[in-house]
Amino acid sequence: MITMVRRTVQARPADENGTLARGGYMELSYDPACPYEVRLAETGSDAGEVVFARDLLLDALDGNPAGEGRVRARLRRFRGARHSMLELAVPAADGGDLIFAICDDAVAEFVRDTTDLVPAGDEWRHVDVDAAVAGLLGQAA
What domains appear along the chain, each with residue ranges and CATH number? Predict the structure, then answer.
């Protein structure tokens, strides 16, 4: 039985100048039934969630800035941090961006666990095409 991958990570808010604030925790999750996507969710009762491509994390961890749309990621050195961290910019409710710094080792471990379940490039093998087509046809009606 294939299970979901979940990892709680410290996500420190940051500004464009690279200054880190005290942070809380967020959860990264991956469901092999939706093999192209990763979810990042706040913890708590009013938890928000953003969904983005797993490839974004793979590219950013390889040292390439990733994402051209609403979610972007890159490795970056922040003030006060001992090593580079993953900077993740996600949409805010006001239309701007929220920037979080997440330990790159924690993200790399999460990504490694996801690729153990579904190797990069093999996502298409895990998509239920019949269900996707039925969903599209149902929405078009």
Answer: 5-140 (2.30.31.20)
